[in-house]
Design a protein that fits this description.
The structure holds 2 protein chains of 2 kinds.
Chain A lengths: L1 H37 L10 H6 L7 H32 L1 H15 L3 H12 L3 H25 L3 H9 L4 H38 L5 H10 L3 H29 L8
Chain B lengths: L10 E12 L2 E13 L4 E5 L6 H8 L7 E6 L12 E4 L11 H12 L3 H14 L15 H13 L5 E5 L7 H18 L2 E6 L2 H7 L2 E6 L4 E7 L14 H13 L4
Parallel strand pairs in B: 3-7, 3-8, 5-6, 6-7
Antiparallel strand pairs in B: 1-2, 1-4, 8-9
Chain lengths: 261, 259
């Protein structure tokens, strides 16, 4: 009895939560619409939600451009996760490596990665690959830093406990360190999503022949504001989808209480 | 406690000494630690912070080398493998947040590679013994501090070690929970027949729990006294008002220069 009331209550809470999320977003769209209609905003400055969606009917190769940008963002992000987590592992396994290279990593982080775009294009020619690399170079650092922190945050008494039964280094790592660091890994991965999106778009702005960032520059020339809005919307959606996937993975791998907000 | 064929104690420490060195300075963490522990005893180690009680515990667990004296564990009629026969409980329960209680208790058995089916059975029995039957599938954050510490005690027992080392295990609990856990520990100790070394800075706690009390003082760290506690078992809370209980605690207060 109590169990069913409880689970029903939980369902109602979840439903209410999602209703609120959808309502807030719809309200924003409504405000946008009212602003454009009643504010007498000229069409080259801003168009309403309807005109924005309508621009999908124009021949801008939307599907292809969206797929290219998605590919760049996801590719750069995945690479960022692999390299970020991999380096954090190496740094935690080899103290000297950490001592020598961590300060370097921190100062390299200060380089505005966007400024490296033109150089990457010289190195890798233009196209999808340099954009993936720009997205990657922007997003791997927060993952590296939070993961490295996660590996450090282990209570020394817990290590003593494991050592008292002579845990091997691998056991210590796989049973205690790695699962203990996961919440930190995910907090870095969440921050990195936004950065990967920004990186890929900047790459497309600098030089490319396809993708939503490229499309934005094309339609800017013709003052097709609706298409520009649509491109921004699609880029945002790609980011939201990626973020959602990361949240989902976090839900699967990290127990509620351990999540780092 | 009972008379045995060989009269060698389970643990014999004599003149144990430990020096930490940092930046060219030496710091004496333990000196003159000399005492015996019989198999099945619960010995309290009491003293202020910095008296080396934790260090002494870690030396016995084989986690720190010592710089002088001898540490002999086992060798009598009890074999002892330091990598297999030690269970530890710390001030924090240190349960792994991502594991359910049963899986937490199983951790030492997993690390030692013990047969899992048997260990699971044993872990369930131990959880029942510490009063956590029915919480096997809960996560640590769903348990109170006292309950988490009970789980930590079950974890220390899961691989059936011969020696349990406890480092202020109830130090982070509120006073009432702590009293309750003291009684629980005595019951668990009598049921499991383990040898327990119990580190605390609680003077009354040390006397109430110990068959024997070792007093350590700080600045410089040394062993100041060791005496048997002549109070009947099972112990009850009203023993704390006994005249003899007061004598024991006064004796410790005096040694710690607090009288």
């Amino acid at each position: 009895m109590n169990g069913t009331t409880q689970s029903r209550q939980k369902l109602a809470d979840t439903l209410g939560h999602w209703t609120l999320i959808v309502a807030v977003h719809l309200a924003l769209v409504l405000v946008w619409h009212l602003w454009v209609v009643y504010g007498k905003v000229p069409a080259y400055v801003a168009v309403g939600p309807l005109a924005t969606v309508k621009s999908l009917g124009e021949d801008y190769n939307w599907v292809h451009n969206t797929l290219i940008t998605t590919y760049e963002i996801f590719g750069g992000y995945l690479l960022g996760c692999i390299v970020g987590i991999g380096l954090a592992l190496l740094f935690s396994w080899f103290r000297t490596l950490n001592k020598v290279f961590m300060p370097l990593v921190v100062s390299l982080n200060m380089i505005p990665k966007v400024a490296l775009g033109p150089i990457f294009i010289v190195w890798f020619s233009y196209g999808v690959v340099p954009n993936i690399i720009i997205a990657f170079s922007i997003c791997f650092l927060p993952i590296l830093l939070t993961t490295a922190r996660g590996f450090r945050e282990i209570d020394p008494d817990l290590i003593d406990l494991a050592r008292s039964v002579r845990a091997s280094r691998w056991q210590l790592f796989s049973k205690i360190q790695l699962p203990g660091a996961l919440p930190y890994v995910f907090s870095g991965m969440k921050v990195a999503v936004v950065l990967a999106v920004a990186g890929a778009i900047v790459g497309e702005f600098i030089s490319s022949e396809e993708g939503l960032g490229y499309l934005m520059q094309q339609v800017q020339v013709t003052l097709d504001t609706g298409a520009m809005f649509m491109a921004v919307l699609l880029i945002t959606l790609i980011g939201v989808v990626l973020y959602g996937l990361v949240l989902l993975a976090e839900r699967i791998f990290v127990v509620g209480d351990a999540r780092v907000e | 406690m009972s008379g045995t064929a060989s009269n060698k104690p389970f643990i014999r420490l004599s003149g144990v000494r430990k020096v930490f060195r940092s930046r060219g300075e030496e710091f004496l963490a333990v000196s003159d630690a000399t005492f015996d522990v019989e198999a099945g005893e619960l010995v309290s180690l009491v003293g202020p912070s910095g008296c080396g009680k934790t260090t002494l515990l870690k030396i016995m667990a084989g986690l720190h080398p010592h710089d002088g004296g001898t540490v002999e564990i086992g060798g009598g009629e009890v074999d002892f493998d330091p990598g297999r026969d030690v269970g530890m409980v710390f001030q924090q329960a240190l349960l792994l947040k991502w594991r359910r209680i049963l899986e937490n208790v199983l951790l030492p058995a997993e690390i030692l590679g013990l047969p899992m089916a048997e260990s699971r059975e044993r872990a369930r029995d131990l959880l029942n013994m510490v009063g956590l039957g029915g919480f096997e599938r809960n996560y640590p954050y769903e348990l109170s501090g006292g309950m988490q510490q009970r789980a930590a005690i079950a974890r220390a027992l899961v691989h059936d070690p011969k020696l349990i080392l406890m480092d202020e295990p109830f130090g982070a609990l509120d006073a009432l929970t702590r009293e309750k856990m003291n009684l629980e520990l005595l019951r668990i100790w009598q049921e499991s027949r383990k040898t327990i070394l119990f580190v605390t800075h609680g003077i009354a706690e040390a006397v109430f729990l110990g068959t024997r009390v070792v007093v350590l003082t700080s600045g410089p760290a040394r062993m100041a006294d060791m005496f048997e506690v002549d109070l009947a078992h099972p112990r009850t809370l009203d023993m704390k008002t006994h005249e003899r209980f007061g004598e024991y605690t006064r004796r410790i207060y005096k040694l710690l220069g607090m009288e």
